[in-house]
Amino acid sequence: MSATDHLVFENRRYAETFPGPRPLKPKLRLAVVSCMDSRLDLFGAFGLAIGDAHLLRNAGGLLTDDMLRSLAISQRNLGTREIAIVHHTNCGMDRFDDEAFRSGLADETGERPEWDVPGFTDVQEQARRSLARARTCAWLPHRDSVRAFVFDVETGLLAEAS
After folding, report:
1. Nearest residue to 147 (alpha-carbon basis) of 138, 157, 155, 135
2. How far apart are the first and last CA of the chain?
3. Which of 58, 59, 66, 139 has a Cα-to-Cα distance from 119 of 20 to 30 A?
């Protein structure tokens, strides 16, 4: 059974006990930005339930233009008021070579990506940069309630970046 077949199978089981639709706007009025890393269980680590928060994920949990677009929609159209940015230890974007990655894609496909995926070398500093970017983004009307954290994948604990 492929991984996708497994998803479809498990969905059938899930649908049997599905509680029905939930409200569109997150109950906690919170958006969480984090990495797509499969080791991060945002629901378990933060005591969240379905419908509590918007969970926005990408490689590195970086505040790209697309992530800021999603946050702007989250705040302006869907009622969130707080943002938690969660980076983590032992991230695949640590020391990631963006230029080599994009050059490899261009060499292989003949098409150079227009986007970039900058890596970082200090996760605490990256969390502070992400915090600063969110707090200065004019698209976000609720910039005063933004906090950034580093999640330790070895212990499951958060450390706030300041």
Report:
1. 135
2. 46
3. 139
